[in-house]
Amino acid sequence: MNLFDFSHSVGWLWWIPLFPLMATVWLGFFNPSGKFAAAVANAALLASLLLSIRAFAMTWGPEAGVLTANFTWIQVAGVNLEFGVVLNPLTGAMLAMVTFVGLLIFLYSTSYMSRDPGMTRFFCYLSLFMVGMLGLVMSNSLLLLFMFWEIVGLASYLLIGFWFRKPSAAAAAKKAFITTRIGDLGFLLGLLWAFKATSTFLLFDGGQGLLEIEQITALSATKDVLFGLNGAGVIALFLFIGAVGKSGQLPLHVWLPDAMEGPTPVSALIHAATMVAAGVFLVARAFPLFLADATVLGIVSWVGALTALFAALVALGQYDIKRILAYSTVSQLGLMMVGLGAGGLALSEGGVSIGTFHLLTHAFFKALLFLGAGAIIHGCGHEQDIRLMGGVFNRMKVASICYLAGALALCAFPFTSGYYSKDQILLSAWTAHGAVFWISASASLLTAFYMTRQCCYVFLGDYRGKGPIRQSPSLMTAPLVILAIFSLAMGIVSEEFYHILTYLSGIAVDQHAWIVVVVSWVIALGGIALGLLIYGGSQLGLDATDPMKGSLRTPYAWLENQFFIDELYDATVARLWKASAVLIVFLESGIHFLVETVRGLVTGMGGFLSKTIDQKLIDQISFDGVCDRIYKSGRLNAIIQNGFLQGYLRSVTLGAVILGVLYLVFAR
Amino acid sequence: MGLTLHHFLILSAILFSIGLVGALTRRHIIIMLICLEIMLNAANLNLIAFWHFSSNPLLMHGPLFTLFAIAIAATEAALGLALVLAIFRHYKTIDLESIRDLKE
Amino acid sequence: MIVAFYLLALIAVLGAGLAITLRNVVHAVFSVLLFFSALAGLFLLLLAEFIAAVQVLVYIGSVGILMLFAIMLTTNVVGDPNRPVQSRGWVWGGLAVVALLAGVLLPIISRTGGQSPTPLSDFNPSVKQLGLVLMDPYFASLGVIALLLTAGLIGAVVAATGASEADQAKTVPENRPRFPNN
Amino acid sequence: MNNYFDLKLVELGRWIEAFFAHYPTLKLVVHLLLCTLPLALSFMGAFAFTTWLERKGLARIQNRPGPNRVGLFGLLQPIADGIKMLLKEDIVPERSDKLFHFLAPIMLMIPAMIGVGFLPLGDGLHALPLDSAIIFFFAISSLNTIAVFMAGWSSRNKYSLLGGMRAVAQMISYEIPLVLSAVAVIMMAGSLNAQEVVASQQISSWVGSGNILQEFFGRILGWNVFKPWGFAGFIFFFIAALAEANRSPFDLPEADSEIIAGHLTEYSGFKYAILFMGEYISAFAIAGIGVTLFLGGWNGPVFAGLPWFVLKLFSLFAVMIWIRGTLPRLRVDQLMGYAWKFLFPLAILNIFLAGFYHFLERQWGTAIAMLAGWLFGFGALQLAAIALSRLNQSPTIRSKRVYQLVE
Question: What is the tally of structural domains in chain C?
Answer without folding.
Answer: 1
